[in-house]
Structure formats: structure tokens, C-alpha cells
Amino acid sequence: MSRERQRLAISRPKQGAAGKTGSWRLCRPVVNREKCNRCGLCVLYCPDSAMDADIEVDLEFCKGCGICANECPQKAIVMVPD
Predict the structure, then answer these.
(1) What is the pTM of this model?
(2) Distance of CA 9 to the CA centre of its chain
(3) Cβ contact 36:55 at 8 Å
(4) For position 49, which CATH number holds?
(5) What secondary structure letter does DSSP report for 26?
(6) Which residues, 6 or more positions from 3, have their beta carbon under 8 angstroms from its beta carbon?
């Protein structure tokens, strides 16, 4: 009997009262697909839900906090000046 990976509910980013947050970001995350093992920790820890299940970053909502890069066990995410 194979066990499917259970998905938890993931929140979706929404426009805040001051608009989308990406306009004041100083750094943005860049994912190295060669190093990424798709563990999903970056998606789980992103406080703004700016990353989707395919490890794509929605730069309109990403604040550039770097939590995704910090939590990545493969160091597949680096923060670069925006």
C-alpha cells in the first residue's frame, strides 16, 4: 500500500491595505533548480506565502526577508540585490 504525501492547507497571498509588498523589497530570492530537492521547506516557512508548490516566487508579494534561503537545507536559494 503506497502512502500519498498529505498536503496541508496553504494560505494564498492577498493584496494588503498598502498594496502589494514587492515594490519595497531590497533583495529577492533566486532558486537554483540544480541544487533544489523540492523538500518544500521554503514554501512552508515563507511568511507571505509568496512561493508556490513548484518553488516559484511571486515577486509581487515577496518581501525579501530571506527566510526561504535560510531554511533551505540544500542552500539552493540565494538572496540577490533587487
Answers:
(1) 0.74
(2) 15
(3) yes
(4) 3.30.70.20
(5) S
(6) none
* Beta strands per DSSP E along the chain: 27-31, 77-81
Residue with grid cell 541544487, as numbered in its chain: 35
Q: What is the mean pLDDT of residues 36-59?
A: 92
Q: 25-35: b or e for each residue (b if 16 or more CB lie within 10 Å)?
A: bebbbebeeee
Within 8 A by CB and 6+ apart from 27, the residues are: 64, 66, 79, 80, 81, 82
* pLDDT (average), residues 49-67: 91
Question: How many domains are there within the chain?
Answer: 1
- The whole-number pLDDT of residue 20 equals 65
Per-residue pLDDT at 6 exceeds 70: no
User: Does 14 map to a domain?
Assistant: no
